[in-house]
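LPXTG cell wall anchor domain-containing protein: structure tokens wanted.
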Amino acid sequence: MRLNRRFHRALGAAAALGLAGVGLTAVPAQAAEVQIDVLGINDFHGRLKADGQSAGAALLAGAVDELRAENPNTVFAAAGDLIGASTFESFVDQDHPTLEALTAAGLDVSAVGNHEFDQGYCDLVDRVIPFIEEKATQYGTEPWEYLGANVKIASGQSTGCDHDENLTESWTQTFDGVTVGFVGAVTEHLPELVSPSGIAALDVLDIVEETNRVAADLKAGGADIVVLLVHEGAPTTALEDAVDPGNDFGKIVTGVSADVDAIVSGHTHLAYDHSVEVPEWVAEGREVTARPVVSAGQYGYNLNKIRFTYDTDAADGAGAVADVESDIIPLTVQNDEGAWVPNPEFAPDDVVAGIVQKAVDNAAVLGAEKLGDITADFNRARQSDGTSENRGGESTLGNFVADVQLAAARITDEDTDLAFMNPGGLRQDLKYAGTGENDPDGNVTYQEAAIVQPFANTLVTTTLTGEQIVQVLEEQWQPEGASRPFLKLGVSAGLTYTYDPDAAAGEHITSVSLDGEPIDPEGFYRVVVNSFLASGGDNFATLADGVDTADTGQIDLQAMVDYLGANSPVSPDYAQRAVGVNWVSDPGAVYTPGEEIAVDLSSLLFSAGEPVDATATVTLGGIEVGKVDIDPAAVDTTDEVGRAQVRVTVPAIVPDSAKEATESALVVELPESGTTVTLPVTVDFGDDPGTDDGTEDGGDENGTDDGTDDGTDDGAEDGTDAGTEGGADENGTDDGADENGTDDGTEDGDELPDTGSSGVLWWVIGGVAVLAIGGALFALSRRKGNAGGTGGPAA
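Answer:
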């Protein structure tokens, strides 16, 4: 593309090789063996400052300087995500300090990562790449090249960018007559990971196919060595996973052609240094039969180093790789006290240190502004190791941000009903503990809030039906092949739901309620989400199908700023807004004294140090029938932390107060967290001597109605509920009554005559799960027919 200045500046090498994107050409030497080093990083994410294991940009640059001094035949390369999801010092200035620091550090080439597209393709080609070129001129270096061989502008499409061109596919550099070529590619999951609207004109193509095509072109054009820079990575550090064709990375490792001599990878933030045998090389009898497959981890913790020894006088006269070595070079090490300190083998680069300090000083002024106060931590969910983020778990932070965004949306669209928040948009916890005299406990600064949500998404409102809301919640279970199996949405207060964790795909959600009322599948609800979700990001495609969609013009970070200013101090809500319910006994059965009611509950607790209930109290008809233990262990990638096996026996005697209740249920209460789960069941307590003479109010001893009833049943809501609560049909008449209101002695679904002495309590039909939070009771049966109530406004 036009931005590839190296192509124009290296005309001699380009003419000799006929290659696009050719880099600087060193003066050839006639040595029989040439050693070429490739230094690699990935997933730097704007970690400018030294912080713990993160070495910082200055030490990274110093290490590259020293290793280059040892061998001038060195390429400094990267596998993407150098910017985006950055620390505040870089984020607050649109990652310009990171781009400047890496330019001054002499970065040569990088694959694009998904975070390079956070602000859309036009931001990358119209702002990021030109800024790199500007800074390269300032520092007297060559601008480093961003490569993306598998990202193409779709046929017939225009990006609308000033630079409406494809990214460069490859880049080369020649040392002592030996040419090294680089191919760049980004994860095929890119459309799920960034706002789809920002890359709408792009096609994301198969990594293996595009790599093999470009690698073949490079070799045909004279490249002696080809390195793939790919923003995709192994799921673990184990070699067997890196070569498993059943995962995304294994498909790449086993699928790229013999033209590829090494793979530098990223995306999964893991450090590994593998050597993978290439069958074609073995068959050809090559001296080197395995290719390096490496990753440096994340945040400037390490450098990958691959050393190729190329024999220019090979036996066949064609030249060949005679040896290859790879290693992970740590940029920080642990001292005797276990603290991370800079690797003493390297010294910080002074120029880059100045860039970092300027960014830190600028951020200190902007970031110190106080926004408000919190009374406790707002955390993301955690995996079972207690530290790693779990995007599959409900979190106090996710729910809080949804609350904030709902409040913000109502400023411009007062009819907004609810909010969803994607877990990947939350990059750091919001902590109660202060950092010093100027940041006391509970204080929330602009910097702290900005790091939580660094993507500068706008808030978008759209209208969905109740059925679509259920579908959005179903989409938390991600499609096969997605980067994570489950993504738990933060939801605003008032939206609560139950789910069956063991149900089939598309059938997990069992109830949804808004402000204590079941949602109407055919009703209309105004929803606010960030612009990433609004365009279907993270595979939440239904959110892109809403109508009357409007951008509020509010930035997510500004919404947080305003909310804290107006509502401080803010406290986390520890009650669950979603609970897993898996019936063991029959939820639709009529239980009698002595029978066991059995149900398994999950998602009763948070996972990041929030209050934990060791036991829950169980009541039936208002009478305590037992306590159950709660297992607080987290289950990785899921929301199943806080599991309880509820097993209770229906008592033989209950007080009249319980028998007289029009609605009662099996209730599981967690006093510390405030979560209450109410499970409707049907119980026949049997004969209760001394209650009455066998007649019901308004009927004679034969159980017949005198016909004067207005036709409504205690369980019907004004006679309009099509859901037949308490046995009322859509006209408000009892299912057991004829048009004149006479009762034949049977209830809907009960073949036995009601004599008025059975003591049956028809609490709620069907065993539909009900969740009570903060005293609000709600239930929803998943209705697939027409809605019983009136709909919302026309779409």
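Residues 121-139 form the longest helix (19 residues). The radius of gyration is 32 Å.

Cheers.
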